[in-house]
Amino acid sequence: RAALLTRGLAEMMRLVKAVGGKSETCMGLTGLGDLILTATGDLSRNRRVGLSLAAGESLDRVLAALGHVAEGVLCAQAVSDLAKKHHAEMPICTTVSQVLNGQLSPEAAVRALMGREPKSEN
Q: How many C-beta atoms surround the C-beta of residue 87 within 10 A?
């Protein structure tokens, strides 16, 4: 979990910098704070969607049972498109988008992310 959060924060910082912002902006409540709460909070709708997909449920069924909007589901593709447009490497975001679009299974997504070559996280 720590690796995912650390790498997720690095992705956020790269995108913010790529679109002309200050990467340090991600270190505040609206960046790191939201990331931690979304990824670890029991009430996080995005986390519940991810756990349900990993358990084998379909996205349609998960969203119907949720009864509320899971913002990550709605914005994952848009963020991936923005990253591509600005040449910001965001493998976690891209992989999540592929899972949500049915291009990758959750298991294949984990394998793809864990199989990446180690490199500097800066």
A: 8
